[in-house]
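User: Fold both of these, please.

Assistant: Here is the first one.
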Amino acid sequence: MRKMQIYIAIVCFLALIAGATSCNTNSQDENNTEPPHYDRIEVHSLAELNEMRSMIDCDDPDELKEYLLRVHGDTLDGTPISKEDLVYFVSRVDKLPYVNLLEGEIVWIHYLCGKSKDTGLPVDVIELSIQANNGDWVSIDYLFSENDVEGRINAMKAEAKHENLISTPLYSQDGKVVFHIETREENPSGSGDIIRWFAEIDGIFTSIRYCTSNANNVDTAALVSDLKISNIPSQATSE
């Protein structure tokens, strides 16, 4: 179990080890241009995302300049985040195959682009986190830089062996969401449980962490069956 946990941790936190080289992946925007120069940009709510959308259309250069100075992000070369960076980030988020794994509010959308310090391989990840009123939360990592999705999943299945709680892949009704690997453990903090899944969402290799007060209340097969791909909501849900 310890060996599998280490393997999972490496994959889950791949997004945290970007180096100081520019992004070099197959991910390109609809105009077939290279991604901009930043390596990290994020928003912490749908309200922040909508503000970013509005600032893209802002005609006041002073207002836009002030906004760019407070955007959460870093660039590889130390230059400020630009309007073009905002356009690219919003475009990627708007095309993200979103699945509603938990009723709650989106509290983080984080995009990281660069190269792994350890392997030199491209890192192109969007992480999206949702938190419910009861404190449960789910974090979904979309690893766009994983080109060999089938190979990665097969390797992880071989590593997990009997620790994988999914004997055969679980499919959503439209077949666009497939869960391949599941592990469960007590939360190291001592409160609740953590469920980890490795899946394909619209063909994208995906790592999912679900922190819940009681994992016994989560029926993975039923959850996956009901999943549908949609777009990021335009506003927070009403509670």
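And the second sequence with its predicted structure:
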Amino acid sequence: MSDDVEKLRQIRAQTLALVEEMTKQPKPTYRLEGQEIGWSEYLAQLQAVVDWCERKLAACQPVELRSQAVT
């Protein structure tokens, strides 16, 4: 499982680096050879990947439950 956790951390870090680069110099949506390039949609997809990684990483963390008996 530690291999999976490390891969998730790496994907998250790489995606955050892409987000950082994109937000330094945002670009408008444009058409190139009939294909629309939507930067805001691409940024939203990257943010969704980061959120997905964070949920997966949180699920891999050990959980401690505490309870207290009431008499």
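The chain has two helices and two strands.
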